[in-house]
């Protein structure tokens, strides 16, 4: 959750560059600009902020690659879920908490410049974090998480409906839809990916011992009442608790990325769930890195519910085989090497270690990819009807767990996020990285290592000969190029590739086509 209401040696703050980086779609920024369509209404549903449900429009901003022709008719879609503790920004006591947050906007722009379509979405807010009754704190939070999962699923269906009925206005590939959740949004992304059985929300810790009818909470009953709220997809239920959106379309996604969120229970994750990546501060006070309890930081702190963070989630994802699509990929980039030096062998996990918080050693760190401006926070507070001093308070609260905050500091962390998650998305989903690619992993191309392991051979059964072969590492650095080929078989010497082993992208160009294949050199 976000910094004030819930509860770094860093990623080494990698800014490592390469001297021969070649544009590789999805791995590097290949589009010079971004088109943003703002305030698109993707659903309507009932929000509870003041005790009275209100039907509201749920909106998103859609970021698309621009500034150059896009040869891809359909592009992978990223659904981005912002942070905020399920309380509106400023009201939550912080400088962040909306889709307009600097980090949310920046990450969506960077994904779009890499060739994705990114949807930066709102979701429903509202719970009672400071109530003295544990059942009310826990029950209202779990209901908020549940509603936000329904909202994210409605957004996925919105795009699939658009593909089917509106000529795919945003050019998305409905077979490649990914979730990236930050803070509170990380809770949404992880739980979206695993919740699919009503029995999962009837575990003993999810049963109330209190009667609180005003909150829809009843002793002996699950906190989440599906008869009222509808099922996990948001179907069923009754007004004024649920409004169905876009029935008849799939809510399935293909990947989930967590930036500082957590999952409700370890029993929820099962074999066959989508691949997951976790990037998480090890001393995050709002979402435990491993197994822990979410607290409201009152004095004294009040517990809400025990959860599991990225360290535990990725352990289970790896053990259950859900991350098999990239677990043995052999990435050798510096981001992976740094992560692997501190993640206890859990591929897909990037612990962020930032040392002792200089403000207070007990506060920990959270959201180092965020930045905020004092005057802008004051202006936002005034626009919401507060005195400007409220903005000062929110700004100060946000600094408590991000004491080194600056735009440059945040962008360094975002660089780490981009360079850690995108190679795994590309590898697992076989995304075409050539700017002008029209196909990928074509069955007409075979790549095999030699018995001596000194070279590999690219063989084609296409109707036309190969014209060139380029070899890239997973950061997009060009390692080798063979031009003026007029053959159906080509040997590539490993000595020319500059790396003895690891995962490579091999780009094969023909007269009218470009094919990218992955090869693991050993």
Quickly give the structural class: alpha/beta
Strand order of the largest sheet: 1-2-4-3-5-6-8-11
Shape annotation: globular
Count of domain modules: 2
Mean pLDDT: 91
List the helices and strands and how they pair.
Blueprint: E1 33-47, E2 54-66, E3 75-81, H1 102-113, E4 117-121, H2 134-165, E5 172-182, H3 184-194, H4 226-229, E6 255-259, E7 262-263, E8 276-281, E9 291-296, E10 302-309, H5 310-319, H6 324-327, H7 334-340, E11 349-352, H8 374-383, H9 388-400, H10 407-429, E12 445-449, E13 455-460, E14 468-472, E15 478-482, E16 489-493, E17 502-509, E18 514-521
Parallel strand pairs: 3-4, 3-5, 5-6, 6-8, 8-11
Antiparallel strand pairs: 1-2, 2-4, 7-10, 9-10, 12-13, 13-16, 14-15, 14-17, 17-18
Describe this structure in words.
By secondary structure, this protein is an alpha/beta fold. It folds into two domains: 397 residues; 77 residues, Immunoglobulin-like (Sandwich). Helices cover 24% and strands 24% of the residues. The chain is built from ten helices and 18 strands. The chain has an eight-stranded mixed β-sheet, with helices on both faces. Strands 15-14-17-18 form a four-stranded antiparallel β-sheet, with no helix packed on it. A three-stranded antiparallel β-sheet has the order 7-10-9. Strand 1 and strand 2 form a beta hairpin. Helix 1 packs across helix 10, helix 2 crosses helix 3 and helix 8 crosses helix 9. It is globular, with a radius of gyration of 24 Å. The two termini are 42 Å apart. The N terminus is likely disordered.
């Amino acid at each position: 959750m976000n910094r004030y209401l819930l509860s770094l040696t860093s990623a080494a703050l990698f800014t490592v560059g390469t001297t021969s980086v070649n544009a590789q779609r999805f791995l590097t920024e290949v589009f010079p600009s971004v088109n943003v369509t703002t305030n698109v209404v993707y659903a309507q549903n009932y929000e509870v902020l003041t005790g009275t449900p209100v039907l509201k429009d749920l909106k998103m901003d859609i970021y698309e690659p621009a500034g150059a022709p896009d040869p891809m008719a359909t592009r992978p879609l990223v659904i981005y879920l912002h942070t905020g503790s399920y309380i509106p920004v400023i009201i939550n006591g912080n400088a962040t908490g909306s889709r307009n947050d600097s980090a949310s906007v920046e990450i969506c722009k960077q994904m779009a410049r890499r060739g994705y379509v990114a949807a930066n979405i709102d979701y429903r807010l509202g719970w009672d974090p400071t109530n003295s009754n544990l059942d009310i704190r826990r029950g209202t939070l779990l209901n908020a998480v549940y509603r936000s999962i329904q909202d994210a699923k409605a957004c996925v269906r919105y795009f699939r409906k658009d593909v089917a009925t509106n000529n795919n206005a945003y050019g998305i590939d409905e077979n490649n839809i990914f979730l990236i959740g930050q803070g509170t949004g990380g809770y949404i992304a992880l739980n979206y990916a695993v919740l699919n059985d009503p029995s999962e929300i009837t575990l003993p810790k999810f049963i109330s011992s209190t009667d609180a009818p005003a909150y829809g909470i009843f002793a002996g009953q699950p906190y989440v009442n599906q008869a009222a709220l509808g099922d996990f997809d948001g179907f069923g239920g009754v007004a004024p608790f649920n409004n169905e959106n876009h029935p008849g379309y799939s809510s399935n996604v293909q990947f989930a990325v967590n930036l500082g969120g957590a999952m409700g229970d370890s029993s929820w994750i099962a074999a066959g769930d989508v691949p997951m990546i976790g990037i998480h501060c090890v001393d995050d006070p709002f979402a435990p890195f491993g197994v822990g309890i979410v607290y409201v930081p009152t004095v004294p702190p009040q517990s809400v519910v025990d959860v599991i963070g990225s360290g535990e989630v990725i352990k289970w994802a790896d053990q259950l085989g859900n991350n098999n699509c990239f677990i043995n990929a052999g990435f050798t980039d510096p981001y992976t090497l740094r992560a692997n030096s501190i993640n206890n062998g859990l591929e897909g996990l990037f612990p962020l270690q930032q040392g002792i918080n200089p403000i207070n050693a007990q506060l920990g760190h959270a959201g180092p990819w965020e930045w905020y401006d004092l005057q802008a926070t004051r202006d936002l507070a005034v626009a919401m009807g507060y005195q400007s001093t409220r903005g000062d308070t929110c700004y100060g609260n946000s600094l408590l767990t991000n004491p080194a905050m600056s735009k440059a500091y945040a962008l360094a962390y975002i660089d780490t996020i981009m360079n850690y998650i995108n190679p795994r998305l590309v590898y697992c989903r076989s995304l075409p990285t050539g700017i002008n690619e029209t196909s990928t992993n074509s069955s007409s191309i075979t790549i095999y290592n030699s018995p001596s392991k000194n070279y590999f051979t690219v063989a084609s059964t296409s109707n036309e000969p190969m014209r060139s072969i380029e070899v890239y590492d997973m950061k997009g650095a060009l390692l080798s190029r063979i031009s003026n080929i007029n053959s159906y078989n080509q040997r590539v010497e490993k000595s020319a590739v500059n790396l003895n082993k690891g995962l490579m992208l091999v780009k094969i160009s023909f007269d009218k086509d470009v094919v990218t294949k992955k090869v693991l050199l050993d």
